[in-house]
Amino acid sequence: MEHNFAKGLENIVALESSITFIDGEKGILEYRGFDIAELADMSYEQVSYMLIYGRLPDRNELKSFSDELKELRTISDSAFNVIRFCNYNIEAMDALRTTISFMSHCDPDLNDNSPEANIRKGMRMIARFPTVVASFSRTKHGMEELEPDPELSHSANFLYMLRGTRPSELEARILETDFILSADHELNPSTFTARTIASTLSDIHSSVIGGLCALKGPLHGGARMAVMEAIDEIGSVDKVENFVIGKVEKHEKLMGFGHRVYKTYDPRAKVYKKLAKEIAEDRGDMLWFDIAERMEEIAYREFVGKKGKPIYPNVDFYSGVVYKYLDIPSKLATAVFAIGRISGWIAHCLEQYSDNRLIRPRAKFVRSEK
Ligand code: CMC
Questions:
Q1: 223-325 in CATH: which number?
Q2: Does the predicted TM-score (pTM) go above 0.85?
Protein backbone atom coordinates (compact mmCIF):
# COMPACT_ATOMS: atom_id res chain seq x y z
CA MET A 1 0.00 0.00 0.00
CA GLU A 2 1.34 3.46 -1.01
CA HIS A 3 1.39 6.19 1.66
CA ASN A 4 1.71 9.96 1.22
CA PHE A 5 5.14 11.25 2.11
CA ALA A 6 6.06 14.85 3.02
CA LYS A 7 9.33 15.50 4.80
CA GLY A 8 8.67 17.38 8.05
CA LEU A 9 4.93 16.67 7.51
CA GLU A 10 4.84 19.83 5.38
CA ASN A 11 1.25 20.68 4.37
CA ILE A 12 -0.05 17.42 5.83
CA VAL A 13 -3.39 17.83 7.61
CA ALA A 14 -3.13 15.60 10.67
CA LEU A 15 -6.34 16.35 12.56
CA GLU A 16 -9.45 18.53 12.85
CA SER A 17 -9.47 21.46 15.27
CA SER A 18 -11.84 24.32 16.11
CA ILE A 19 -9.27 26.37 18.00
CA THR A 20 -7.14 28.35 15.55
CA PHE A 21 -7.49 29.23 11.87
CA ILE A 22 -4.46 30.23 9.78
CA ASP A 23 -4.37 31.31 6.15
CA GLY A 24 -0.65 31.28 5.38
CA GLU A 25 -1.05 32.83 1.92
CA LYS A 26 -3.12 35.81 3.08
CA GLY A 27 -1.51 36.19 6.50
CA ILE A 28 -4.71 35.60 8.50
CA LEU A 29 -4.74 34.28 12.07
CA GLU A 30 -7.87 33.75 14.18
CA TYR A 31 -8.52 32.14 17.56
CA ARG A 32 -12.05 30.74 17.80
CA GLY A 33 -13.17 33.02 14.94
CA PHE A 34 -11.62 36.22 16.34
CA ASP A 35 -9.02 37.95 14.18
CA ILE A 36 -5.59 38.69 15.67
CA ALA A 37 -6.33 42.44 15.69
CA GLU A 38 -9.45 41.93 17.85
CA LEU A 39 -7.60 39.49 20.12
CA ALA A 40 -4.87 42.02 20.83
CA ASP A 41 -7.48 44.24 22.52
CA MET A 42 -8.65 41.51 24.92
CA SER A 43 -7.08 40.41 28.21
CA TYR A 44 -4.95 37.26 28.38
CA GLU A 45 -7.41 35.83 30.90
CA GLN A 46 -10.29 36.39 28.42
CA VAL A 47 -8.35 34.78 25.58
CA SER A 48 -7.32 31.81 27.74
CA TYR A 49 -10.93 31.25 28.76
CA MET A 50 -12.00 31.38 25.13
CA LEU A 51 -9.29 28.95 24.01
CA ILE A 52 -10.23 26.48 26.74
CA TYR A 53 -14.04 26.76 26.71
CA GLY A 54 -14.58 27.63 23.04
CA ARG A 55 -16.41 30.92 23.65
CA LEU A 56 -15.88 34.31 25.27
CA PRO A 57 -16.72 34.48 28.99
CA ASP A 58 -19.44 36.79 30.28
CA ARG A 59 -18.43 39.31 32.93
CA ASN A 60 -19.03 36.97 35.92
CA GLU A 61 -17.31 34.04 34.26
CA LEU A 62 -14.30 36.20 33.46
CA LYS A 63 -14.11 37.48 37.02
CA SER A 64 -14.21 34.03 38.57
CA PHE A 65 -11.70 32.70 35.99
CA SER A 66 -9.29 35.59 36.71
CA ASP A 67 -9.78 35.30 40.49
CA GLU A 68 -9.08 31.57 40.35
CA LEU A 69 -5.85 32.17 38.44
CA LYS A 70 -4.79 34.73 41.05
CA GLU A 71 -5.49 32.31 43.91
CA LEU A 72 -3.50 29.55 42.21
CA ARG A 73 -0.33 31.61 41.58
CA THR A 74 1.50 30.66 44.76
CA ILE A 75 3.74 27.60 44.63
CA SER A 76 4.79 25.32 47.50
CA ASP A 77 8.06 25.60 49.45
CA SER A 78 9.16 22.28 48.00
CA ALA A 79 8.62 23.65 44.47
CA PHE A 80 10.74 26.68 45.41
CA ASN A 81 13.45 24.27 46.58
CA VAL A 82 13.40 22.53 43.20
CA ILE A 83 13.81 25.92 41.51
CA ARG A 84 16.73 26.81 43.79
CA PHE A 85 18.36 23.47 43.04
CA CYS A 86 17.89 24.00 39.28
CA ASN A 87 19.54 27.36 39.63
CA TYR A 88 23.05 25.93 39.92
CA ASN A 89 23.07 23.94 36.76
CA ILE A 90 20.50 24.76 34.13
CA GLU A 91 18.67 27.44 32.17
CA ALA A 92 15.05 28.62 32.36
CA MET A 93 13.33 26.15 30.00
CA ASP A 94 14.96 23.18 31.72
CA ALA A 95 14.08 24.61 35.12
CA LEU A 96 10.46 25.12 34.03
CA ARG A 97 10.20 21.56 32.67
CA THR A 98 11.75 20.10 35.84
CA THR A 99 9.63 22.18 38.23
CA ILE A 100 6.37 21.48 36.38
CA SER A 101 7.23 17.79 36.43
CA PHE A 102 7.91 17.95 40.17
CA MET A 103 4.71 19.93 40.80
CA SER A 104 2.68 17.33 38.90
CA HIS A 105 3.63 14.74 41.55
CA CYS A 106 1.91 16.87 44.20
CA ASP A 107 -1.16 17.72 42.10
CA PRO A 108 -4.36 16.60 43.87
CA ASP A 109 -5.77 15.46 40.51
CA LEU A 110 -2.66 13.53 39.56
CA ASN A 111 -4.39 10.30 38.56
CA ASP A 112 -7.63 11.80 37.29
CA ASN A 113 -7.82 12.24 33.51
CA SER A 114 -11.45 13.48 33.43
CA PRO A 115 -12.16 16.73 31.53
CA GLU A 116 -12.94 18.54 34.81
CA ALA A 117 -9.67 17.42 36.41
CA ASN A 118 -7.73 18.34 33.28
CA ILE A 119 -9.16 21.86 33.39
CA ARG A 120 -8.19 22.14 37.07
CA LYS A 121 -4.66 20.91 36.31
CA GLY A 122 -4.48 23.27 33.34
CA MET A 123 -5.54 26.25 35.47
CA ARG A 124 -2.80 25.47 37.99
CA MET A 125 -0.21 25.39 35.22
CA ILE A 126 -1.43 28.63 33.59
CA ALA A 127 -1.35 30.36 36.99
CA ARG A 128 2.02 28.97 38.09
CA PHE A 129 4.17 29.16 34.97
CA PRO A 130 4.86 32.89 35.63
CA THR A 131 5.72 32.23 39.29
CA VAL A 132 8.19 29.49 38.36
CA VAL A 133 9.87 31.53 35.61
CA ALA A 134 10.14 34.74 37.66
CA SER A 135 11.37 32.89 40.76
CA PHE A 136 13.97 31.00 38.74
CA SER A 137 15.26 34.21 37.19
CA ARG A 138 15.47 36.01 40.54
CA THR A 139 17.31 33.19 42.32
CA LYS A 140 19.65 32.80 39.35
CA HIS A 141 20.55 36.49 39.75
CA GLY A 142 20.98 36.20 43.52
CA MET A 143 17.68 37.88 44.47
CA GLU A 144 14.89 36.76 46.81
CA GLU A 145 11.78 35.31 45.19
CA LEU A 146 8.67 37.49 45.56
CA GLU A 147 5.13 36.59 46.52
CA PRO A 148 2.57 37.14 43.73
CA ASP A 149 0.63 40.41 43.95
CA PRO A 150 -3.12 39.61 43.91
CA GLU A 151 -3.99 43.14 42.84
CA LEU A 152 -2.20 42.72 39.53
CA SER A 153 -3.30 41.07 36.30
CA HIS A 154 -1.55 37.96 34.96
CA SER A 155 0.94 39.95 32.86
CA ALA A 156 1.55 42.81 35.31
CA ASN A 157 2.10 40.33 38.13
CA PHE A 158 4.70 38.44 36.11
CA LEU A 159 6.70 41.62 35.44
CA TYR A 160 6.41 42.56 39.12
CA MET A 161 7.61 39.13 40.28
CA LEU A 162 10.47 39.23 37.80
CA ARG A 163 11.73 42.76 38.35
CA GLY A 164 10.57 43.60 41.88
CA THR A 165 8.73 46.79 40.92
CA ARG A 166 5.25 47.22 39.52
CA PRO A 167 5.35 47.76 35.75
CA SER A 168 3.92 50.81 34.03
CA GLU A 169 0.50 50.47 32.41
CA LEU A 170 2.14 50.44 28.98
CA GLU A 171 4.59 47.67 29.93
CA ALA A 172 1.83 45.51 31.40
CA ARG A 173 -0.36 45.99 28.33
CA ILE A 174 2.48 45.16 25.96
CA LEU A 175 3.35 41.96 27.80
CA GLU A 176 -0.34 41.07 27.92
CA THR A 177 -0.49 41.38 24.13
CA ASP A 178 2.65 39.25 23.91
CA PHE A 179 1.00 36.50 25.96
CA ILE A 180 -2.09 36.67 23.72
CA LEU A 181 -0.09 36.56 20.48
CA SER A 182 1.92 33.64 21.85
CA ALA A 183 -1.08 31.70 23.16
CA ASP A 184 -1.80 29.50 20.17
CA HIS A 185 -0.73 28.77 16.64
CA GLU A 186 -2.52 25.67 15.42
CA LEU A 187 -0.26 22.62 14.93
CA ASN A 188 3.10 24.25 15.59
CA PRO A 189 5.73 21.71 16.73
CA SER A 190 5.18 22.12 20.48
CA THR A 191 1.39 21.87 20.21
CA PHE A 192 1.67 18.89 17.89
CA THR A 193 4.03 17.25 20.41
CA ALA A 194 1.61 17.95 23.27
CA ARG A 195 -1.32 16.53 21.25
CA THR A 196 0.66 13.47 20.23
CA ILE A 197 1.38 12.71 23.88
CA ALA A 198 -2.27 13.38 24.83
CA SER A 199 -3.36 11.05 22.02
CA THR A 200 -1.71 8.13 23.84
CA LEU A 201 -4.03 9.05 26.77
CA SER A 202 -1.02 10.03 28.83
CA ASP A 203 -1.70 12.78 31.40
CA ILE A 204 -1.90 16.51 30.68
CA HIS A 205 1.27 17.39 32.64
CA SER A 206 3.28 14.97 30.49
CA SER A 207 1.72 16.49 27.36
CA VAL A 208 2.62 20.03 28.43
CA ILE A 209 6.15 19.02 29.40
CA GLY A 210 6.58 17.47 25.95
CA GLY A 211 5.37 20.77 24.46
CA LEU A 212 7.93 22.66 26.53
CA CYS A 213 10.73 20.42 25.29
CA ALA A 214 9.74 21.10 21.66
CA LEU A 215 9.32 24.84 22.19
CA LYS A 216 12.88 25.10 23.49
CA GLY A 217 14.50 24.35 20.11
CA PRO A 218 16.05 27.23 18.10
CA LEU A 219 13.85 26.50 15.06
CA HIS A 220 10.79 27.04 17.28
CA GLY A 221 10.49 29.20 20.43
CA GLY A 222 14.25 29.28 20.98
CA ALA A 223 14.53 31.67 18.03
CA ARG A 224 13.34 34.57 20.22
CA MET A 225 16.42 34.31 22.45
CA ALA A 226 18.66 34.08 19.37
CA VAL A 227 17.12 37.29 17.98
CA MET A 228 17.88 39.15 21.22
CA GLU A 229 21.46 37.88 21.20
CA ALA A 230 21.90 38.86 17.53
CA ILE A 231 20.75 42.42 18.27
CA ASP A 232 23.30 42.65 21.10
CA GLU A 233 26.02 41.20 18.89
CA ILE A 234 25.27 43.72 16.10
CA GLY A 235 25.20 46.66 18.51
CA SER A 236 24.62 49.50 16.03
CA VAL A 237 22.59 50.19 12.90
CA ASP A 238 25.64 50.61 10.66
CA LYS A 239 26.76 47.03 11.43
CA VAL A 240 23.49 45.42 10.35
CA GLU A 241 24.28 45.18 6.66
CA ASN A 242 27.49 43.17 7.14
CA PHE A 243 25.83 40.91 9.68
CA VAL A 244 22.89 40.01 7.45
CA ILE A 245 24.97 39.66 4.27
CA GLY A 246 27.44 37.46 6.18
CA LYS A 247 24.63 35.14 7.27
CA VAL A 248 23.20 34.89 3.76
CA GLU A 249 26.61 34.24 2.19
CA LYS A 250 27.44 31.53 4.74
CA HIS A 251 23.96 29.98 4.22
CA GLU A 252 23.24 30.43 7.91
CA LYS A 253 19.72 30.89 9.24
CA LEU A 254 18.64 34.39 10.21
CA MET A 255 16.79 33.75 13.42
CA GLY A 256 13.30 35.25 13.68
CA PHE A 257 12.78 35.08 9.90
CA GLY A 258 10.90 32.64 7.70
CA HIS A 259 7.95 30.42 8.45
CA ARG A 260 6.68 27.00 7.41
CA VAL A 261 3.08 28.19 7.01
CA TYR A 262 3.19 31.94 6.27
CA LYS A 263 4.22 32.77 2.74
CA THR A 264 3.65 36.45 3.51
CA TYR A 265 4.21 38.71 6.52
CA ASP A 266 3.38 36.87 9.77
CA PRO A 267 0.35 38.80 11.13
CA ARG A 268 1.72 38.48 14.67
CA ALA A 269 5.00 40.11 13.60
CA LYS A 270 3.04 43.15 12.35
CA VAL A 271 1.48 43.64 15.80
CA TYR A 272 4.82 43.05 17.55
CA LYS A 273 6.52 45.61 15.31
CA LYS A 274 4.02 48.28 16.41
CA LEU A 275 4.47 47.30 20.06
CA ALA A 276 8.27 47.41 19.75
CA LYS A 277 8.11 50.91 18.25
CA GLU A 278 5.69 52.09 20.92
CA ILE A 279 7.80 50.90 23.83
CA ALA A 280 11.04 52.15 22.22
CA GLU A 281 9.51 55.62 21.85
CA ASP A 282 8.25 55.48 25.43
CA ARG A 283 11.76 54.61 26.64
CA GLY A 284 13.22 57.35 24.43
CA ASP A 285 15.73 54.89 23.00
CA MET A 286 15.19 53.62 19.47
CA LEU A 287 18.48 51.69 19.10
CA TRP A 288 17.19 48.10 19.30
CA PHE A 289 14.12 48.89 17.24
CA ASP A 290 16.22 50.63 14.58
CA ILE A 291 18.66 47.69 14.41
CA ALA A 292 15.76 45.28 14.00
CA GLU A 293 14.01 47.35 11.36
CA ARG A 294 17.25 47.64 9.38
CA MET A 295 17.72 43.84 9.66
CA GLU A 296 14.27 43.39 8.18
CA GLU A 297 15.05 45.74 5.28
CA ILE A 298 18.42 44.17 4.45
CA ALA A 299 17.12 40.62 4.78
CA TYR A 300 14.26 41.40 2.40
CA ARG A 301 16.63 43.04 -0.11
CA GLU A 302 19.20 40.21 0.05
CA PHE A 303 16.63 37.43 -0.29
CA VAL A 304 14.89 39.08 -3.22
CA GLY A 305 18.26 39.79 -4.86
CA LYS A 306 19.98 36.46 -4.23
CA LYS A 307 17.17 33.91 -3.92
CA GLY A 308 14.50 35.62 -5.99
CA LYS A 309 11.95 35.55 -3.14
CA PRO A 310 11.45 37.72 -0.06
CA ILE A 311 11.83 36.70 3.56
CA TYR A 312 9.76 38.21 6.35
CA PRO A 313 10.07 38.40 10.13
CA ASN A 314 8.13 35.79 12.10
CA VAL A 315 6.59 35.98 15.57
CA ASP A 316 9.98 35.63 17.27
CA PHE A 317 11.61 38.68 15.68
CA TYR A 318 10.00 41.86 17.03
CA SER A 319 8.88 39.99 20.16
CA GLY A 320 12.60 39.69 20.95
CA VAL A 321 12.90 43.47 20.57
CA VAL A 322 9.88 43.97 22.86
CA TYR A 323 11.44 41.72 25.50
CA LYS A 324 14.65 43.74 25.42
CA TYR A 325 12.72 46.94 26.17
CA LEU A 326 10.84 45.12 28.96
CA ASP A 327 14.22 44.17 30.54
CA ILE A 328 13.48 40.47 30.10
CA PRO A 329 16.86 38.67 29.95
CA SER A 330 17.47 36.88 26.63
CA LYS A 331 17.98 33.56 28.39
CA LEU A 332 14.44 33.83 29.75
CA ALA A 333 12.81 34.56 26.38
CA THR A 334 11.63 31.04 25.50
CA ALA A 335 10.23 30.49 28.98
CA VAL A 336 8.28 33.77 28.73
CA PHE A 337 6.94 32.55 25.37
CA ALA A 338 5.82 29.37 27.21
CA ILE A 339 3.89 31.46 29.77
CA GLY A 340 1.73 32.66 26.88
CA ARG A 341 1.59 29.33 25.00
CA ILE A 342 0.42 27.24 27.98
CA SER A 343 -3.26 28.09 27.55
CA GLY A 344 -3.09 26.98 23.90
CA TRP A 345 -1.47 23.69 24.88
CA ILE A 346 -4.19 23.09 27.48
CA ALA A 347 -6.95 23.86 24.94
CA HIS A 348 -5.41 21.49 22.38
CA CYS A 349 -4.95 18.67 24.89
CA LEU A 350 -8.61 19.01 25.97
CA GLU A 351 -9.70 18.92 22.33
CA GLN A 352 -7.52 15.87 21.69
CA TYR A 353 -8.89 13.97 24.70
CA SER A 354 -12.48 14.87 23.76
CA ASP A 355 -12.30 13.14 20.36
CA ASN A 356 -9.20 11.04 20.51
CA ARG A 357 -7.50 9.03 17.84
CA LEU A 358 -3.93 7.89 18.45
CA ILE A 359 -1.51 10.04 16.41
CA ARG A 360 0.72 7.55 14.69
CA PRO A 361 2.11 8.46 11.25
CA ARG A 362 4.24 6.13 9.13
CA ALA A 363 7.86 6.39 7.98
CA LYS A 364 9.01 5.77 4.43
CA PHE A 365 11.45 2.92 4.83
CA VAL A 366 14.78 3.49 3.11
CA ARG A 367 16.93 0.39 3.09
CA SER A 368 20.52 1.20 4.10
CA GLU A 369 23.39 -0.46 2.31
CA LYS A 370 24.94 -3.39 4.17
N1 CMC B 1 17.27 32.41 7.35
C2 CMC B 1 17.83 32.11 6.17
N3 CMC B 1 17.23 31.37 5.23
C4 CMC B 1 15.98 30.93 5.51
C5 CMC B 1 15.33 31.20 6.71
C6 CMC B 1 16.02 31.98 7.64
N7 CMC B 1 15.46 32.27 8.80
N8 CMC B 1 14.12 30.63 6.69
C9 CMC B 1 14.01 30.01 5.52
N10 CMC B 1 15.13 30.19 4.80
C11 CMC B 1 15.40 29.70 3.47
C12 CMC B 1 16.01 28.32 3.52
O13 CMC B 1 17.41 28.35 3.60
C14 CMC B 1 15.51 27.72 2.23
O15 CMC B 1 16.28 28.24 1.18
P16 CMC B 1 16.56 27.38 -0.14
O17 CMC B 1 15.20 27.20 -0.78
O18 CMC B 1 17.49 28.22 -0.92
O19 CMC B 1 17.15 26.10 0.34
C20 CMC B 1 14.13 28.31 2.10
O21 CMC B 1 14.16 29.56 2.79
C22 CMC B 1 13.05 27.43 2.70
O23 CMC B 1 13.42 27.23 4.04
P24 CMC B 1 13.07 25.94 4.88
O25 CMC B 1 14.00 25.88 6.05
O26 CMC B 1 12.96 24.74 4.00
O27 CMC B 1 11.63 26.28 5.34
P28 CMC B 1 10.90 25.59 6.49
O29 CMC B 1 9.49 25.68 6.21
O30 CMC B 1 11.41 24.24 6.83
O31 CMC B 1 11.41 26.56 7.67
C32 CMC B 1 11.68 27.62 9.62
C33 CMC B 1 10.68 27.21 8.55
C34 CMC B 1 10.93 28.42 10.67
C35 CMC B 1 12.28 26.38 10.28
C36 CMC B 1 12.79 28.48 9.00
O37 CMC B 1 12.24 29.61 8.38
C38 CMC B 1 13.84 28.86 10.00
O39 CMC B 1 14.73 28.05 10.33
N40 CMC B 1 13.78 30.11 10.55
C41 CMC B 1 14.74 30.53 11.56
C42 CMC B 1 14.32 30.04 12.93
C43 CMC B 1 13.09 30.74 13.42
O44 CMC B 1 12.98 31.95 13.34
N45 CMC B 1 12.17 29.96 13.99
C46 CMC B 1 10.90 30.48 14.49
C47 CMC B 1 9.78 29.93 13.68
S48 CMC B 1 8.23 30.74 13.82
C49 CMC B 1 7.71 30.74 15.43
C50 CMC B 1 7.99 29.60 16.31
O51 CMC B 1 7.76 28.46 15.92
O52 CMC B 1 8.46 29.88 17.39
A1: 1.10.230.10
A2: yes
